[in-house]
Design a protein that fits this description.
Layout: H1 31-47, H2 59-71, E1 89-91, E2 97-99, E3 117-120, E4 123-126, H3 128-139, E5 145-147, E6 157-159, E7 164-166, H4 171-178, H5 193-197, E8 204-205, E9 212-214, E10 247-248, E11 259-260, E12 262-264, E13 280-282, E14 305-308
Antiparallel strand pairs: 1-2, 3-4, 5-14, 6-14, 7-9, 8-9, 10-11, 12-13
Helix pairs in contact: 1-2
């Protein structure tokens, strides 16, 4: 709406003067100064869907509220509009908006440390050195046996059970292999069966110019940690060894009773009559407190062991 100055004024922005009888002549009011504001107010009331009424002097206010609620869009990155106060902001009863400081329990604003992230032109960026570190850490796990919480394989892993893994499917595994990442834990591609059995913890190429690797065959095996200076080579397999079990059996007619792993049928060792001799028996569980089975083994838990293969090839 255009401003309408007093009638006869040459200044388009001239002010109105209040007249004082006998002293000051008041400004002449042109019809437009009265008509135009009324018509503009009525138009706003109509645009809000209301019917102008001479008995309601609050219609303009009501119309403004209604139009704001209906026609003003929700704000976006490309369009100005209404916003709602989120978790990282706070607004007081007086309408003061403030940004909260971020904590472990609360969203809010944070200050980049300059080491892992920084701000450029208002945009938060993760520094490349942090990305490089995380990528190197991820790749360091390729081919490393580790325990798993489930009997279901996670993505990009395989069981450490001697299966053949092809480089075409897992190019990052090939990258680690060609960079010497399995040094000391590889047997020859043409290793015979006995050599393979003696090196269950090692990887084996499938050919002289390999297209893949056989994984270590760790199923049903016990782990014993290796470090430089150990008595055996890393990745080798050792056969069962058992604890010694001892006992004493005295000669017939002696007073020495069986001990240790030996015991009798309760008649003693003295010959009572022909065919009525005491029988000497041996039971290793007496020495090992009942813990016997079909193989020598320490106390153990059956825990799934898996291998990370890196990212798969892109199809």
């Amino acid at each position: 709406m255009k401003y309408n100055p007093p009638a006869g004024s040459q200044d388009p922005d001239a002010k109105y003067v209040t007249g004082q009888p006998g002293k000051v002549r008041g400004s002449a009011v042109p019809a437009e100064a009265v008509e135009h504001p009324q018509r503009e107010i009525v138009e706003v009331i109509k645009k809000a869907g209301l019917t102008p009424s001479a008995d309601d002097l609050g219609q303009l206010y009501e119309a403004i509220l209604k139009i704001i609620g209906v026609q003003v869009p929700v704000a976006s990155k490309t369009e100005t509009g209404l916003v709602q106060i989120g978790d990282g902001l706070n607004i007081t009863p007086e309408g003061l908006l403030s940004v909260l400081v971020a904590t472990s329990k609360q969203n809010g604003i944070m200050r980049p440390d300059g080491t892992t992230c920084t701000v450029e032109d208002g945009v938060l960026k993760v520094l490349q050195q942090s990305n490089d570190y995380m990528e190197a850490w991820r790749k360091s796990w390729i081919g490393v046996p580790r325990y798993w919480r489930s009997t279901e394989l996670p993505d990009n892993h395989c069981w450490a059970n001697g299966d053949l893994i092809y480089f075409n499917d897992w190019p990052e595994l090939k990258e680690i292999y060609e960079a010497g990442g399995f040094e000391g834990m590889l047997m020859g591609w043409d290793a015979d069966v006995e050599t393979q059995k003696s090196n269950l913890g090692k990887w084996r190429p499938n050919a002289s110019i390999p297209t893949g690797l056989y994984t270590p065959a760790l199923s049903e095996q016990f782990f014993r940690n290796w470090a430089p200076g150990a008595d055996t080579t890393a990745g080798t397999w050792l056969a069962d060894t058992g604890r010694n079990a001892t006992g004493v059996v005295g000669a017939l007619d002696s007073d020495v009773l069986p001990s240790g792993v030996f015991f009798t049928n309760g008649r003693g060792l003295t010959a009572v009559s022909s065919g009525d001799r005491s029988i000497v028996k041996m039971d290793l569980s007496k020495q090992w407190k009942g813990h016997v089975g079909t193989e020598f083994s320490p106390e153990h838990i059956w825990q799934p062991a898996i291998l990370y293969l890196g990212r798969p090839a892109q199809v």
